[in-house]
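Exercise 3.2. Students should predict the tertiary structure of the chain below and write it as structure tokens, then compare their answer with the key that follows.

Predict this chain's 3D structure.
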Amino acid sequence: MSKPKAIPAVSVTYAQNGTSTRANAFGMRPMQERVYQKRGEQYLLIKSPPASGKSRALMFIALDKLENQNLKQAIIVVPEKAIGSSFHNEPLSQYGFWADWQVEPRWNLCNAPGGDNGGKVDAVQKFLASSAKILVCTHATFRFVIDKFGIEVLDDRLIAVDEFHHVSANPDNKLGDHIRQLITRDKTHIVAMTGSYFRGDAEAVLHPEDESRFDTVTYTYYEQLNGYQHLKQLDIGYYFYAGNYTDQIMQVLNPKEKTILHIPNVNSRESTKDKIREVEHIVEELGEWQGTDPNTGFQLVKTADGTILKIADLVDDDPTKRDKVAAALKDPTQKNNRDRVDIIIALGMAKEGFDWIWCEHALTIGYRSSLTEIVQIIGRATRDAPGKTRARFTNLIAEPDAAEAAVTEAINDTLKAIAASLLMEQVLAPRFEFKPKHPNNQATPGFDYGEDGYNPSKCNAGINPDGFIQMEIKGLAEPKSPEADRICREDLTELVTAFVQDKPTIERGLFDEELVPEELTQVRMGKIVKEKFPNLEEEDREAVRQHAIAALNLVQQAKKTANEGGGEAAKNTSLIDGVRKFALSVTDLDMDLIDRINPFGEAYAILAKSMSEERLRQVAEVIAAKRVNLSVEEARELAKRALRFKKEKGRLPSLTAVDPWEKRMAEGIAFLQRKVKEENNA
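Answer key:
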């Protein structure tokens, strides 16, 4: 049996300085304190990783709005009933705050029996008419309430939407439509919270004009993980396998690690179509079945070394069995008991909002099409817990085989896995603060510029304790409007997400040997910025494009520098070291140089090591066969870039130029001229 092969893997090491878990005089952790400073905002969007304390941050804000901002009531809206437990009573005054968080049992509708429609909708009506202050309900109940009573009934109240990525700007998304109506009416306060850094994957959560009304608080994965006490290293790996995954599971499943194993959806390529048998097979691979614990419903399995593993099966649909297991996992008295359970096997459960701090390994079989879902699954393993120094996410994916009928689907999964890997590198990295290089630039207080300190004659790279990397880049365009400035500070990851998920972009970046990188970095990213932020001036769009490409390519170059170092020590080189080494290795870090780097070059280098040459060639041929020539839209974008070239150089690009990018821009102009001629002759 061959070992599954790895494709782009991320390994990030953090400082373990304890700051993100340390509380201030009010009992607030740094993220919560940052949110509380914005408590006066009417519309607040909190982007912060799973387990960073968003629920409690909301409690602090809601109590202030009820006490000091003349709001009548607070309604907390969660995607599913299980997440309602995050908003149970909290004695905040014990830790220094001026009030406790208390929800009367009758107003936590997540605990009430029955469906979301009907009785719960009437209960919300009674709540609105009462003097009670706080209600917790599901997204579904909230939607039915607005359908039945209209949005006016929510005037002068706080609406807090947890897991906000469930909202979408799509007109068919009822929750998104209701949020838009509330913003248009402008008589409620809204706090939106999400653990995902990109809005609804392919679809925006809000229209840009609605989103611009929100004040954003961003707390990054880097800040959170850097500030943990225990967890020091996070590894993310994607693996290919051939045949049945159940035969190779033990290559990636370590029985000694606390693991959540997500088996594939029955409709996916990876599924054997018999989920019960899959679970039985995994249990058999782990050891000898010893029966079921009568109190918890956990399966007991004896491994080869005599250890008894406790396995929670959440796949079996028998409600009596599954409810017992689910209740045992949720038992609050066992939350801090590391020995309670060893492995959880799930299908469609144990993801968003599932809290098991001891989880060291999130192992997922089969590709998940939603990047939001991947981040949620990874979030299960990134809790800080005593004795837990390393956590990992592994995705086991069926290898593409060009002989199969499903080859296109298999290749798509591979491309998506690479996109997810590139995106996670971005999400886990410190935030960038880019500055144009000027001769009169000075060191920024609080930034560490390395052993030699700040050098006015070079492009410097510095880092501050909050995890910001400051980079000086020659020829960098600066955002002019407040909105463009906000995007460069807050939303670069969103653009990187759209870029790495753009199929023609990733296909060409990985497999087009004649690629001119600027076609991706300038043309494709330029198009994505224009689509995402149509209201920006062209100058601002270019500044945003440059910042997004710089963020993506600098992380890739840092990874390349670390990988070239070789060995475990290099793997654990922090990203800042890699960025510094890259900045020092070039004479001048300028925007033209960054635009000339293929963002997928390093991903291809790793892919080439993990796939056989034959398989790689087959995949490249499949992609090459569907390559299309220049489109009118791309030619127009090239012509625009050619005009910018003319402004700088005093001449138009030449078709015979040695520089491939200049030649490509000239081809764009020639293509448009041919089109005009054809239309005139038609």
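Discussion points: The chain has 23 helices and 18 strands. The CA atoms of residues 288 and 302 lie 5 Å apart.
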